[in-house]
Amino acid sequence: MTAPLSETGVLGPLGVLLAAPLIGFAFGWFLERGGLGSARKLAGQFYLADLTVFKVLFSALLTAMLGAFWLDRLGLLDLSLVYLPETFVLPQALGGALFGAGFLVAGLCPGTSCVAAAAGRIDGVGVMGGMLLGIAAFNGVFNWISGFYESTPLGAVTLTDLAGVSRGVGVAVVTAVALAGFAIVTRIERARG
Amino acid sequence: MSRVHSTLVIAAAILGLAAAGQDLRTGAAATKLTSEIDAAGGYISAPDLADRIVRGDSGLRVLDLRSRAEYDQLHIAGASHIAFEDLAHAVPEDATVVLYADGGSAAARAWMLLHTRGHRRVLVLREGLYEWIGRVLEPRLASDATAAERAAFARAAETSRFFGGIPLTGVPRADVATGYWTGIDRSGHQPAGMSKRAIASIRRRGC
After folding, report:
1. C-alpha dist (Å) from residue B52 to A119, B59, B76, B135
2. Is B96 on the interface with A (CB under 8 A)?
3. Helix, strand, coil fractions of chain A, as percent rounded to 5
4. Are A155 and B200 inside 8 Å of each other by CB?
5. In chain B, what residues touch A80 (CB-CB under 8 Å)?
6. What residues in A contact B17, CB-CB < 8 Å?
7. What does the pLDDT read at residue B54?
8. Most A CBs within 10 Å: which of B130, B133, B196, as the mutation test of the A interface?
């Protein structure tokens, strides 16, 4: 059996429909268990007061990257069939800055706002409402900004494509950076008691 | 740090380092194979292959080593699909065989298999279908092209149209790889004649 299961036809349309809520539920469950349903904890990241977000997200990134790389090399996953989103430099940089500002103000991002709302937190419901309003507003003005939205395209490019190194070397570098990051974060937390 | 954390950190470090080691080892083996094929004159460029097809070379068999689905989606005109495991007993003795896949490595392994079985009239399309798209179907002329490049492009555009391709003009210089019109750039590992952005756009189209 080779993954991705939907692309290789192992999971039919019904299987995909059933898998999606299960994965979504598991994602929300682990976010909540990791403490990421709390706006205080998330905002603490920006002031270096609480670095849980960094640790959770980098652990997930490292696990997914090493898992995907080795599953591909062991023939259990065909990485060429995995969807790669396209890169548009300027619009995504601006979108990232806007996202970060919203994250800082609200203390929640889209996923964690759902988790907070599901856990009964009123701020989570507020952020979800704001997010839906933002989506509607974006759709309303899309025709005006579509030129910028599709500007500076790089295609479906990866870090290793850009750096001109092999995928394995990229994996090793990101692993080293993440582990160094964990070490630094642990020191900061210790210094702050 | 707890014992569980230490174990996870060590496991991540080992898997990360092993990833680089694995790639470097396969990379070295691939380089050795490439040199061997080069030394035996076993490579053909996409424009040379296109010329032979246009001329109607009857002694030429082009074999596509990718999956049947990929072949059905797009293949070189006149090419036949063949599975790697069927190669050994399906290659004609009396024809010159050109092998290609997505990039160059699968075809290079197939060349080695046939070579060790005594087939001598076997050629590899160096960068496979990527090179075919980038140099034959979609030849690209930089916006600041020289007169020599324009003349070469005029010939390439004619061949491109023969195969139903679309010649591209006014392409940013950064999107035209070094050595595009002067020969194959062997310095990097990116497909000949194509920039990384062009490769990414092909990947996006799903060829």
Report:
1. 68, 10, 13, 15
2. no
3. 70, 5, 25
4. yes
5. 203
6. 172, 175
7. 92
8. B196
- Provide the ipTM: 0.71
Whole-structure pTM value:
0.59
Instruction: Please say whether the beta carbons of A123 and A39 come within 8 A.
Output: yes
Asked if the Cβ–Cβ distance from B27 to A155 is below 8 Å, we say no
Residue type, A114: C
Q: CB within 8 A of A176, min separation 6: which ones?
A: B13, B16
CB contact under 8 A, A156 and B27: no
What type of residue is A9? G
Strands lying side by side in the sheet with B96-100? B43-44, B122-125, B96-100, B60-64, B80-81
Residues 25-44 of B with CB under 8 A from A: 27
Task: Name the residue type at position A132.
Answer: L
Contact B30, B108 (CB under 8 A): yes
- What would the pLDDT profile of A119-142 be if each residue is shown by its tens digit? 889 999 999 999 999 999 999 999
Q: Do A167 and B23 touch (CB under 8 A)?
A: yes
Q: Give per-residue pLDDT as tens, A150-167.
A: 888 776 678 887 787 888
